[in-house]
Here is the input.
Amino acid sequence: MDKKGKRDKKSYNWILRKELKEALLLNYNTEKMMDKLPEEFIDEIFWGGKQKKHKSNIYERNSQAREACLKHYGYTCQVCGFDFEKYYGTAGKEIIHVHHINKISKKSNEHKIDPIKELIPVCPNCHIVIHSKKEGMYTIEEMKELIHNK
Here is the structure.
């Protein structure tokens, strides 16, 4: 188009049927194809689920330590007080995350765990916020302050 909005001899209006657009995206390398299609043709389609290989360390959790922690504290979040069973009934019975107060990945190897001092039940919402701190983790006390000072 020229500056006045009129079509010049070198430009063309793209009219691409939805079926053709989908066929192009499905039958060709979509990552390369996306760069070649005009923006207005790709804003409706999202891709996900591509399989990738991933290698990482997994740190073993001790189920007996978890059980001892829950026997002591119960299944209520020790930060916000959420109880899955009270909210969801029997579907929520005995559902809770157990958080390692000291990051298990920071230990050099297998080590003793005190389930009362080193583990604590927290709901998934509190657990993700605990681990969202830029450096380190929020402590249980910091989390309680966040909730009470909102």
